[in-house]
Design goal:
Layout lengths: L4 H21 L5 E7 L3 H17 L2 E7 L5 H13 L5 E4 L9 H7 L11 H8 L8 H12 L8 E5 L6 H10 L3 E5 L6 H5 L4 E4 L17 E4 L3 E2 L5 E2 L4 H4 L5 E2 L6 H23 L1
Parallel strand pairs: 1-2, 1-3, 4-5, 4-6, 6-7, 7-10
Antiparallel strand pairs: 8-9
Helix pairs in contact: 1-10, 2-10, 6-7, 6-10
Length: 282
């Protein structure tokens, strides 16, 4: 069975519109600013998608497009401006930033309660101690998929391929919080296919096109493919060899229309939650 990430994201978007209307009736409009430095093509596509979703939801939506020559100091000053602006509940700096800008400094500059990407060290720490405030959107989207498709994680063996701060580590923490037994694997893991084959739930986030074949997958496993790669013909493909693995998996996400739309959906949800929190505190 194929997990329809796009369909689920569309349902969430409709529900979000209604929630935003209710919040607006109380005098609060969720605000999201996305800051894009430079002209990375993929980043431009992501930012356009985020902008469209935010506008559709009824948010106050702003995109700051800065030239790649923008200094680190100028970027940090812009972030601080939006930290202070109470109309905005979410600040997102699209990564990667140009090499002359320190990405860690940028992430630290965003107030944790406005860090809708969930990358600030304080948000990472809160997630690790089981008291999350803002969660990285892709892992949050995966958890939402599990819920929607009735995947019970308790007592299950979960294997994550990839140890990034954006997906691998946070999804492991979230599954652990739902009582799964979690193994994180990576490029140095020995007998990787053998380890992956133990998984009832396999999450693949390594950025290598069609790396995971059916040899990696136990019969009946749930397979989540986070990969976004281009093959030699420029076609978008995942980290999982979909046609092959689909034959053995019980549930699988496609690429595209799988995890990607859910990432943006969760970003919108977290901005809305931030607005709701600020309403209750004012």
């Amino acid at each position: 069975m194929i997990i329809d990430g796009k369909g689920l994201a569309d349902i969430m978007a409709e529900s979000l519109k209604e929630k935003v209307k209710e919040l607006k009736n109380k005098g609060i409009t969720p605000g999201l600013v996305v800051i894009l430095v430079g002209d990375d093509t993929a980043s431009q596509v992501y930012v356009r998608n985020k902008e469209r979703r935010a506008t559709d939801a009824g948010f106050l939506s702003t995109v700051e497009r800065l030239p790649s020559s923008t200094s680190e100091a100028a970027l940090l000053a812009l972030i601080e401006k939006y930290n202070q602006d109470t109309r905005y509940h979410g600040i997102l700096v699209q990564l990667p930033v140009p090499k002359h800008i320190n990405a860690d400094k940028v992430l630290l500059a965003i107030r944790p309660e406005k860090d809708v990407d969930g990358f600030h060290p304080m948000n990472v720490g809160l997630l690790n101690v089981g008291n999350p405030l803002m969660i990285p959107s892709t892992p949050a989207g995966i958890m939402e998929m599990f819920k929607a498709y009735g995947v019970d994680l308790a007592g299950k063996e979960a294997v994550v391929i990839g140890r990034s701060n954006i997906v691998g580590k946070p999804i492991a923490q979230l599954m652990l919080a739902e009582n799964a037994t979690v193994t994180i694997t990576h490029s140095r893991t020995q007998n990787l296919a053998e380890v992956a084959r133990r998984a009832d739930i396999l999450v693949v986030a390594i950025g290598r096109g069609h790396f995971v074949t059916k040899e990696f997958v136990k019969e009946g496993a749930v397979v989540i493919d986070v990969g976004m790669n281009r093959d030699e013909n420029g076609k978008l493909i995942g980290d999982v060899k979909f046609d092959e693995v689909q034959q053995v998996a019980s549930l699988i996400t496609p690429v595209p229309k799988g995890v990607g739309p859910m990432t943006i959906a969760m970003l919108m949800e977290q901005t809305y939650e931030g607005a709701k929190r600020s309403a209750s505190q004012s």
